[in-house]
Amino acid sequence: MLRQKQFVKKTKSGKVLKVVKEHYLRDDIWCSAEACKACEHTETVLSATPGVNKLFPLPHYIIPDTNIFMNQIDVMEKPQITNVIVLQTVLEEVKHLSLPIHKRVRDMISNKEKHFYVFSNEHHRETFIEKLKDESPNDRNDRAIRVATKWYGNHIQNLKPKVSVVMMTDDAANRAKATADGLQAISVKRYIEALDNTELLDMISDAKELDEGQQMMYAEHLSPAHLSNGIKSGKYYQGKLGISSHNYLEGSIYTKIDGIEGTILIVGREHLNRAIDGDIVAVELLPKSEWRTTPTGVVIDEEEEKEEEESLKAEQEAAAHNEDTPMTDASKMSDDSKLDTPQPCGKIVGIIRRNWRQYCGFIDRKSVHTPAGSSAPINVLFYAMESKIPKIRFRTRQAHSLLGQRVIVSIDSWPKTSRYPIGHFIRSLGEAGDKSTETEVLLLEHDVPFHEFSKQVLSLLPVEGENWVVQPEHFCGREDFRSLNVCSIDPPGCTDIDDALHVIPLLNGNYQVGVHIADVTHFVKPGNVMDQEAASRGTTVYLVDKRIDMLPGLLGTNLCSLRSNVERLAFSCIWVLNENAEIMDVRFTKSVIASKASLTYEEAQNRIDDERMQDDITKGIRILNQLAKKLKQKRLDMGALTLASPEVRFNLERDTQDPVDVEMKELKETNALVEEFMLLANISVARKIFEKFPDSAMLRCHPTPPASSFEKLEKAVSRMGITIDHSTSKALSESLDNAVIPEEPYFNKLLRIMTTRCMMQALYFCSGSMTVPEFRHYGLATEIYTHFTSPIRRYSDVMVHRQLHAAIDHTISYGPELTDKESMNELCGVLNHRNRMAQQAARSSVELFTHLFFKNKVEEEEGFVIRILKNAFIVLVPKYGIEGIVYASAKAPKTADGAGSNAAPQPILIYNPETDSLQSTEHLEEGQTPKKQIQLFQKVMVQISIDDDLKGGGEGGMRQKLKMDLLQPWIEGISVHGICNKDDPEAHAVTSLVDPTAFVPNGSSALKKREGQSQGIDESKRGGKRSKM
Questions:
Q1: Whole-angstrom Cα distance, residue 731 to residue 737?
Q2: Residue pair 723/797 in contact by the 8 Å Cβ criterion
């Protein structure tokens, strides 16, 4: 049956057009019930014996409305909810409202065990309805759901065994209308209560039930229209909120202020106004009198939060009082103080897009007040493992059984009357402190997909499995390089070998050099489910004790891996280089190789150093090493940066995988050898694909860091007679080379570590979305760059391989996935997110294993102060590459029962903005220096242990964290006695650098680690690859 709807519309040019829309209604849309004989379906989805419920003892199918999926998606995903009819009306509404939830619904539909069936009610002759006059779209859709439910009830009423349908909706008015029509209708809460399942009951999202009353705690968010107009007019600033890892009351957005890129600081609960880390927010600048020149403090508990809020309020009142102070008062400030540019501050006036997700954490024991064993529903407070997230309040009947567990909670709402966001319980992960549980937590927290590959994905692997070999037909369109002396150089234990090299001296004195990269795209075809899964994962994630692969292991560690003595398919970049490592010619080709040796960095280095070894492979490595040194020098001459990050490596016990030793990584010449040729290949490929795809090439840029990032660092080192010029990358490189203090060899590396943290994040981008000057990679000092050399572990490289193949072979066909600028831009956004999350997950894994290593240990080591906060300072310990916070306040003593006093911590050192240091509190006359002082770059001695006084009530609370106590310099109230000489406070005396102060503008985490090479911008060949696999 064909229905037509006609209307007219007026175009911009004034023409009137008649538009006819056709809507087909059919009789052959089946119910998909297994027991139905009336329908002519060949495959059914709904089982003949669906579940029952105490309220509905007859087996029944469930028909939910749109809001059930939107608000109760976590409940609907549970295995107890099966045999669900998803109406077309509902599915289309969900898609319009939320694409992520729509995908989750689609996933349930594709899961055969769930028995979710999509019924096209909008195209069925008996269930399609017209919109009535004056009927809202929402009311029309509600009526469509009732009509479809009634049709189903009538259609299946004579089935054997007997079944019925139940409409599920939380809309009381819709339920009443359904009941009036003779339908079975129920709310999700009543339905779940009848299942007698406590866990499912806790998962029900019911924010209204938890409201705290009508007292306003936050300002009302402005409407979307108001925000849009304000952003266009320049009154408000839009940006992504980032919360400090040291203080959840401090956030910032990066945006343009008066045309100059910079950061707006948002400090205090009131100004953050219910925004959460990652939200896209609209910010209004505060008056300049309220801008900050001092850092905020570390906040770790309620008392310190209260103290910080009172401190902020006092500062703002003082700023308002001083607004009318004569200018002569300001002139009395020191020159150093005048150098501090006030930090623009603002307040959040609206949320443009929420970033709420599921959070891993634990229940605060102090919020559980019912007797042990009680199952009464109570409101409890939840601490997220991510310290940037505020407490979440949720209702549970399992409070006592969940204590000591890692649980997942989702946020439902944050009313302006509630101090904390309101959420619901999702599931328990396991015992706190268990290594596997904590690893799952960090993967979930960093949004790392770690599920097993589906049967659909695995079905696309070669049917020969591990017995797959290169066949004669594979040589079509490929060059045969099997006779070349190709070798690979990787970290020890590496099984996913992406790349290999060869070199041939030519008769004219030049060299043919080849970089051969695994040809992943031979196995991963565009658009199939394996390609979609790889694109979704984005990158392989390397943890200390395991690897989360982007591709199934058969490909990543076998068929694509360029192992020695087996033939493999490759994509090769072949140069002719002269003796000065200048490129005379470059070409690209698909190939077949047979690597002659799979070497570790150490094995390759030993070959270079051992003059007795004169085989062809070794001679080739020596030539490559000499060429690599020349390539590196060229890059440095162009302004490439050599930065640094503290890097550690764990030695794990074979059976338990517990850490038995931790040490700083040692880089060898061969690390740089491989790196240089990978960089050269990436640059060469970038030029080629941009030539072919000027509007859609997948490239990678590293933006120039803003001048404001270096302000504090410049000021700090200037007091030591050192100048940092960051006007260009070359100027910065030269400044770092010259920044040497002979009596402290580690200073230069420390400065490079701190400079690394002033850098912007390198990003993937689509060439059509930026101007050519914006393509520049600041850290590598190259005008264009991409990622080509690691397709086994990076999906960006897979896309680049496809574009390169299209660029060199004009006979192949390709689709819009290589040419569509919008889809490429969207993919770049996904890959940037996955890359960032993978790096953070790797750091968290190192942090977890560091805590395991230091458990039951107390170590005393030298460290350097790398950041000053208002009530603490951060110390880097070079030996272990770890960082920790040392507090500058004396904690109130514990009472006899072990409980802490309610008194606020007493400051021993106070922050001096003129010197950017912490100093003792005695009164100073003009020209006097404080008795005790902590400054940037100062060498200190610290005691490292694991903190057992955990937030959230001890055992089962926050994951144990690294604790650093000051040994020297001795400061009464802060320093502790060392384990070697408890009675001699001067036993561990250390000297400090010459009057050193500096600052790390972009913050630092509790523990930093990177497994890259010299760039420090995640561009190296081994940017994340590490393995004890």
A1: 10
A2: no
